[in-house]
Amino acid sequence: MTSLNTDVEYERITRILNSLVKHFLREPTSKTSGKDVKATDLTLRQQQTFDFCIRILGSRITPSIASDEIHVSDLIKKKLIREHKSSSKALRFTNLFTKLQSQSIVTRKWAILYFLLSVSEQSNIGEIAGSVNNPIERAFAHRGLQDLSKSQEFERIKPTSEELKFERIKPTSEELKNRFIQNTLPIPTLSSKSSKEKESLPPKTILTKQLAILENNNEISEILLLRDIVFIFQGIDGQYIKYDKNSSYIIDPKAEISRSTRGILHRLSELGRLFRHVNDFVCTNVNDTSIGLVGQAFCYALQRELTEYYKFIAVLEAQVTKVTDSQQVEHNGLSLKRVLAWTQESLLNLRMMSELVDCCKQKRGGALVSTIYNYTNHGDPFIQQFINNMLEEVSRPFFEMLQRWVYGGELEDPFEEFFVACDPNVEEEDLWQSKYTIRPDMQPTFISPLLAKKIFAIGKSLNFIRYSCHDNDWVITNAGADKVLKYGDIIALECSIDATYTVTSQRLLNILFTKYKLKEHFTALKRYLLLGQGDFIQHLMAQLGPGLSKPANTLYRHNLTGTLESAIRASNAQYDDPDILRRLDVRLLEVSFGEAGWDVFSLDYHVDSPINTIFTPHAMQQYLKLFNFLWRLKRVEHDLSSAWRRNMTNARSLYQIEELKKDINTSRLVCSEMIHFTSQLQYYILFEVIECSWDELVKDYTKSGDLDSLIEAHNKYLKNITTKVFLDTSSNQVIINYFTWRIFISYLTKLKIIHTFFVRVTTPDY
Q: Tens of pLDDT along 449-486?
């Protein structure tokens, strides 16, 4: 059946080519020395032209342009527009080309258009016709075909070097015949009875001699090279191409391979080298748990891409096997050049994977994700899409950890790949301040510092609510199990994080201000440690005054505690929340030799979890420092008031002594100035400093968005107070100026004068 089809195709091509040659060589009868051109001469030209056409069609030389009929039609239209000023010819051609495309019977439209374009691009017909003498050449010149040089003999049997360049495969006689039949290139002969036709060699003889020439060629066939290339693509050494220790493939120098073929093989071997590099990395690390979950996801993504590559190799190997079984390389079938074109996409993929492998060898977790993400800034959309697909797989473990942290406060990071770290040795009381930290090197670049801070605060807030505020039910209810975070839309991720951050932070602040009465604690510290509750402080000082004048080592804490409770019951402090009053206590500082009770007495305010997160030990130390300063100032005011009362009581009897009138007046003036100074200083501290700072604190914690901002507002409140009352170490330079020192020196001098006066007045021998 196959032989019958071959014969039919043979006859069809013979008939068509015969008609074409006769058509082009048909000329009007011309006079040569008064005689007509003989019919035998015309038949001889037909036979010679026919043989030459068969030789051209039987060769494997193909045009150097792509088989694109649209491109050829565009070239024809440009030529028509260039040669004719009007566009009517181009429009007419466009109409004809549209009709040609609609014809399904014509299968080789591109060849027809290319032939017509080649004919039209020849030299001027008149010049060609006048420059040739050979009848055959003159006939072709008259038809607009290329000149036939005399040196190109139609009886030439031996192929030229240009033809041998394209004959890389050793075909058999049957293969050669099939190739001609497939490409509509048969080698028939025309029946002719002329003597010159008999002298010409028959086509079969020509084919036999050409086959002998090809068989004597020792060049390695393309089929064997294709088989080697399939092995190279799989990282396996071939027969002629071996893998070298320098991470490259070497072609056997003894192999008979042309230079152009070697260039193609070198380009194709790059695919095998890249495959070995990527595959070695995957095989080495796919089961290595030390690279972490993100690293294993990276290996899985590479393995997925290699699987697609394996599919391509399977298809290619099937094509090579088909060609090998048929022992021929078809004209439109598989070849090294076609394989080179087919592998361009796989080559680009493997280049990207190899680059990622080299850059990510020492990376883990978020750093690995950041390294891959940086390649998304590439201008090539193909590379961007490839990297995005890769990131979708590689970042999956990271986003799973992110999802559990954001919606459940759970940190499952066995290989320390997440940008949030947890210290299990930290106690619950320091959960907010010290238990969790940020690893900057594990923070992906697509997560901004502000977004990372919100993510960090969300997880801390959830754990604070669960373990410090003991509200685990709310955390479980709002766990967000139905929400899935994945790489892709960064804007949607930011919106989701912002919404969760707002809800979680507001819930935490609401618990602190309602369940744990944070506002009442702020107020209590202001009233009792910053001496804002005036009646309580007056009662306490009046009751503790005699006892605190004694040496410090004679004081007992339980006695002072009882006095404190009496002062509470005697003032409006008794109406405060019992939980607030329970936290108020007496504290005795470390006793040194020679100190009085005034020097070691202090009030204390007990704080526990979770409010100790705001009222940290450092903050309570600041409150203690402020209380000691204000307490001593209050003591000076109390002593000055007592001195003023004694002075007024004894002044009438002392005025009878003339020598004391001047001293008494001086003491009155000094005492009044001291009272005025202490009153103004207390006013400045209590109203200008504490009250103004308190107003700022109330505004700040009212509009605070999370616990961190609340803590920052409280620290700012304490810093403002300590700085403005000259207790901050950084404000020493403010104190050291002339006017401040003048005030304190005057204060000490006047206090010494008053003390001397009291000694003189109270001495019985005076």
A: 999 999 999 999 999 999 999 888 888 887 766 778 88
* Residue 414 pLDDT exceeds 60: yes
CA gap 613, 524 in Å, rounded: 17
Q: Other CB atoms closer than 10 Å to residue 175's CB: what's the count? A: 17
Tokens 């181009």 -> residue: 90
DSSP-assigned beta bridge partners for residue 603: 586
Instruction: Give yes or no for residue 132 having a pLDDT over 50.
Output: no
Whether 185 contacts 58, CB under 8 Å: yes
Q: Which of 623, 627, 628 shows the shortest CA–CA distance to 718?
A: 623
CA nearest neighbour of 271 among 212, 217, 231, 307: 231
Q: Given phi > 0 = left and psi -120 to 50 = alpha, else beta, which region is 683? A: alpha
User: 538-582 pLDDT, tens per residue?
Assistant: 888 888 888 888 888 888 888 888 889 999 999 998 999 999 999
Q: Helix (H, G, I), strand (E, B), or coil: what is residue 251? A: strand
Q: What is the pLDDT of residues 301-336, one digit of tens each?
A: 999 999 999 999 999 988 888 877 765 555 456 889
| 648 token code pair | 């007024």
SS3 283: helix
CA distance 478 to 498: 15
459 to 117, 314, 414, 448: CA distances (angstroms): 73, 49, 17, 17
CA dist list (Å): 730 to 287, 344, 724, 727:
57, 68, 11, 9
- Helices 449-463, 707-724: axis angle to 10 degrees equals 100
Instruction: Report the pLDDT averaged over residues 346-362.
Output: 92
Determine which helix (DSSP H) or strand (DSSP E) holds 35, and give its type and residue range: strand 35-36
- How far is the CA of 625 from the CAs of 563, 612, 629, in angstroms? 22, 18, 6
Residue 766 near residue 660, CB atoms below 8 Å: no
Beta strand ranges found along 546-647 (DSSP E) = 584-588, 601-605
Cα 294 → chain centroid: 14
Q: Structure tokens of 460?
A: 């801390």
Nearest to 707 by CA among 471, 554, 513: 513
**Residue entry with tokens 């900057």:** 440
pTM above 0.90, yes or no: no
Question: % helix / strand / coil in the chain, to the nearest 5?
Answer: 70, 5, 25
